[in-house]
Amino acid sequence: MPVSLVIDNRQKQVEIEQKLIMLLEKAVITSLAYEGWDPDYEVSLSFVSNKEIQNLNRTYRGKDYATDVLSFPLVDDTDGFPMGEEKLLGDVVISVEKAVEQAKEYQHSFEREMGFLMVHSLFHLMGYDHLEETEAQEMRKREEIVLTEMGLVRE
After folding, report:
1. Residues that constitute the known binding site for Zn(2+)
2. Domain 4-149, classified CATH 2.140.10.10, yes or no
């Protein structure tokens, strides 16, 4: 069974088109394939406003500001297999408002920014982090490989 992307659009600032959903599904498939993971996972993806992601960031991370993406893994870090019987990889929450801001700031397309945020979040769901510089470099390298494979190169 292919990857399942469960979408919850809770923002009204930007219309989420089917083309974008397909791109984000491709991000999931490509990221999992790059890591050699089975593609049979379900990922929950919520599109939210800056206000909502700030509330989530405060609640779950103790940081009182709007961030671009939050990742909530449902995979057991010790063995890489999902906890429970269902193959739920985790939840991704993207501030679409922040993605628009960052696309302008970095002077690339909204689609490239959303693709990057999805890939970045997926690597978190698969157990990667960027707390240490070496971890950050490794994660960034993997993200760039996946984004390049998807055709989402820096403009």
Report:
1. 120, 124, 130
2. no
